[in-house]
Specification:
The protein is an alpha/beta fold. It is built from 12 helices and 10 strands. The strands form 3 sheets. A 5-stranded mixed beta sheet has the order 7-6-8-5-9. A 3-stranded antiparallel beta sheet has the order 3-10-4. Strands 1-2 form a two-stranded parallel ribbon. Helices cover about 35% and strands about 20% of the residues. It is globular and about 85 Å long.
Length: about 325
Amino acid sequence: MRTANALLLAAILLWAVGACADPVKIRLSYVVPVGNWAPILFEHPGLARHLGKSYSFEAVHFQGTPQMITALGAGELEIADLAFSSFAIAVLNAGMTDLRVISDEFQDGVDGWFTNQDYVLKDSPIKTIEDLKGKVLTVNIAGAAVDIALRSMLRKHNLDDKRDVTIVEAPFPAMPAMLMEHKVDLMTGAPPFIFDPKFQAAARPLFSQREAIGPTQMILWAAHADFIAKHRAALLDFMEDALRAERWYLDPANHKEVVEIAARVSKAPAALEERVFTKAGQNGDFYRDPNGLPNLAALQSSIDEQHKLGLIAASLEVKQYTDLSLVKEAASRLK
């Protein structure tokens, strides 16, 4: 009897300790407000039902996804929204073999949806990829997905990305001004900055990311396997809340409020955010899977292309570095 009472008391104490434990800290990275989920995810009240209970949340800004690798290694991020390119670099170059793809963020070049484009000025003499020889091009950061697409397109047209052109780095919001002021000859466009009427009047696309490397699993969420194992319950609560939020934003019935939130978060005019989360080709947005499922075939293809470009020493088997159990269980909770 005493043994049974002692076990019961121990169980109660363990439950009490767990109940009083601090919420698990979840820091999610982003590059572009609204373009990435982190800064907008829980702006609509009532979507994050477990926030402050099982987990806390913080959106952390970076200029590009390669910088997130350092933050992951230093324990300054729990979930990184990595590009396909930086995910491969993290695993192969940084030795993060325990990194796992846990969710989709958005995909480029899906039929009927937006694909990134590289722009030149309308009055530029640059008409073909070959005309880029000797020119100055800009990307947000070396090793980012848009950087891979640019270098791939250059190589397809027999241009050396180190010898034949100069590639400089700049934040996405600064690129349109740099192009229009003739500081660069080509820039990689990113929503919503390219939707500015002044920019649209001055610039034209030279090629798209889809033309360069096909449909891509542009951005994904990744986390360390040991963090997933240690904090699975809290992560599952977070993924449930994240999917609930994503579906709310993707619902056309909420579009008016979504635009208002997007404009507030991005500090951009509402007119520039009208296309957010809409399917309208180049007048719309990237594709986001409502169940959080990434396109693993596209991810594999993009990493293989990265290897062909010589930017990573080897390719990797994507499925070995994927754990979709959290997002699948979270989706089942919402049915």
